[in-house]
Amino acid sequence: MSRADTHRAIEAVWRLEAPKLVAALIRVVRDIDLAEELAQDALVAALEHWPTAGVPDNPAAWLMTAAKRRGIDLLRHRQLVERKHAALDGDPESEAFTMPNLEALDDDIGDDLLRLIFTACHPALSADAQVALTLRLLGGLTTGEIARAFLTSEPTIAQRIVRAKRTLADKRVPFEVPRGEELGARLAAVLGVIYLIFNEGYTATAGDDWIRPSLCEEALRLGRTLAGLMPREPEVLGLQALMEIQASRLHARVASDGRPVLLLEQNRALWDQLLIHRGLDALERARKLGGAEGPYALQAAIAACHARAATAEATDWPRIAALYATLARVAPSPVVELNRAVAVAMAEGPAAGLALVDALGDTPALANYHLLPAVRGDLLAKLGRRDEARAEFERAAQLTRNAQERKVMLERAQACVTPPTPAPL
């Protein structure tokens, strides 16, 4: 394997294993910054050793061992420093540094990731800080990726994460899944975290790949685990249903050359019927528990409309538009309104959809959201307003950070170029 191939393998392994590694380390060392430092040290060790020794058969175990060794060295040094300071101070009552048992990393400890999600969603943190911190720790997302998911600035996200870590450390928040009423109080933030992780995998905000299946798989795993923990919570089941149905399309969302394949152009024979069945089953259970109008259950119902349509032409767009209208009432959001505009355009025609999109033009949260000009360009093109459509697609291409999506937007812009008028005979 070439050095470049090895580095790509390390990047892939790191994307998948870093959240698990950090979660396991936090359980033992009880310090988020230290856990991240040890995980980064393990990554550096991999970058030093794997290009010559090769990628190990069990890269996750290798990274854990490297982090453990570095942790033992670092913590022993800290213990020695603490003892020397205590001796110099001459204070026999000073609190001795307790060496964490890093060998406990090998224990069968259950789901560290789920524990870490609930820890990061502690009520001492604001809702925004909860989601940002958990996405950083468990989703393996950069601050830039999180900022785009939040439609906010990167410095803002960075500040939220720093403050969240400091708050958890100051309050000595335990690394555990809460019980009783406290569990329910943190649930909304936890669901939001899991779905944002899934969305980053379903449509990558940046990079060369249109999708990141490993993130979708991790979010699904967490969602299924949470559904097992809270089997009578409708919105947990609603989120599970939504992710199962959307994940069923993953194989159809990308062409063989990596290019995006949009929903209406997908080969529905490639949709995973097992995942669709699991999603519809979870949605039905949520409905029976009285949760049909929860935000995630409503989105799952929209996804189910697509899943039940044998062809794109058979899609029940009036039903989807009605569901989006309900969702806009239950969980108001400019992104929901944009999606509703698309559904209205499909149900009533592009002019009706464009009127709704234009009403969103001055919405601050959508100022740099690439899908706003992308949707507007599509509707303008359908109305024959090709020059305006081209300008919108070019703006969408400038705003997106995803290379594959940029190619699609530029191609759509080029397709809008008005062909020259034939010379008279």
From TrEMBL:
Domain RNA polymerase sigma factor 70 region 4 type, which positions? 117-168
Per the database record, which ranges form the RNA polymerase sigma-70 region domain?
Answer: 17-79
Domain of life of the native organism = Bacteria
Instruction: Name the SUPFAM superfamilies on file.
Output: Sigma2 domain of RNA polymerase sigma factors (SSF88946), Sigma3 and sigma4 domains of RNA polymerase sigma factors (SSF88659)
Q: Which residues form a coiled coil?
A: none
Q: Which Pfam families match?
A: DUF6596, Sigma70_r2, Sigma70_r4_2
Domain named DUF6596 is located at 186-286
TM ranges: none
* Annotated InterPro entries: DUF6596, RNA_pol_sigma-70_dom, RNA_pol_sigma70_r2, RNA_pol_sigma70_r4_t2, RNA_pol_sigma_r2, RNA_pol_sigma_r3/r4-like, WH-like_DNA-bd_sf
Q: Which Gene3D superfamilies match?
A: 1.10.1740.10, Winged helix-like DNA-binding domain superfamily/Winged helix DNA-binding domain
Q: Which PANTHER family match?
A: BLL0085 PROTEIN, BLL6612 PROTEIN-RELATED
Q: Which protein, by its recorded name, is this? A: RNA polymerase sigma factor
Organism the protein comes from: Fulvimonas yonginensis
